[in-house]
């Protein structure tokens, strides 16, 4: 089988894309390669200075790129709503591709602006709300896709539907695993609901394996654990694959022809290597769990999906 690379990305001219967390790591590579192939691309980032710096870097690497930065904080539902409303002036009523890439990993206990546990609130609820608010554009666009970036660490834990915000005790890696399982359950349920609505929009998941990015060091840096930060950074360099390689499953999920909804792609070995279908925990395809998580997510975010195309 031919190893999938960025050379396999079809021409994206005339297509539009939004990539969350595009200021660094696999998000930046994803945005850059989509723009390189001609997609009009929005870098949706929380930090304004870093977002503008990423945009400048992208334009230096791809001078012909049609790209722009827009501020988005997934840990603040007011910011998510403002971003979605502001996107009304972007490429008319269409959106070809939404890449739900941004995320946080194994942070010390924090809460979002709306009071949710930070990892669940950012990694799942923020993207759940964003996708729902942009759904009318996606439904109106032939061939549209939603790609959500999960992790092999989803295997650590299924979601706890009775304790979504870790009120009964917080363990950072379990909370991270739950948020990444929530990503896969979201893709599973979104695929089911799109199919029931007769929509051709695809919902797909991917993960980067072990990629050398700043995601792994953020938690220990927040706690001022400089020794641990150095150890993690060293492990990244020794074990991790470059961000360019880590972005390949996401780019493949976003652009490869004949992709099936609810697919999950990652490196062949789990940590690194060629892009291939990825193993996933059986609970991430449980219809009852995915439906209950969906209902809870609508209640928590106040964003209710309308597969007829009207935003709410």
Automatic annotation (TrEMBL):
Question: Could you tell me which residues belong to the region Disordered?
Answer: 266-287
Q: Which PANTHER family match?
A: PHOSPHATIDYLINOSITOL-GLYCAN BIOSYNTHESIS CLASS F PROTEIN, PHOSPHATIDYLINOSITOL-GLYCAN BIOSYNTHESIS CLASS F PROTEIN-RELATED
- Native organism: Streptomyces paromomycinus (Streptomyces rimosus subsp. paromomycinus)
Lineage: superkingdom: Bacteria
The terms under GO molecular function for this entry are:
oxidoreductase activity
> Among its keywords, does the record have DNA damage?
no
Cited SUPFAM superfamilies: NAD(P)-binding Rossmann-fold domains
Record-linked Gene3D superfamilies: NAD(P)-binding Rossmann-like Domain
Q: Does the keyword Protein biosynthesis apply?
A: no
According to UniProt, the name of this protein is: Oxidoreductase
For this UniProt record, the keywords arranged alphabetically read as follows:
Oxidoreductase
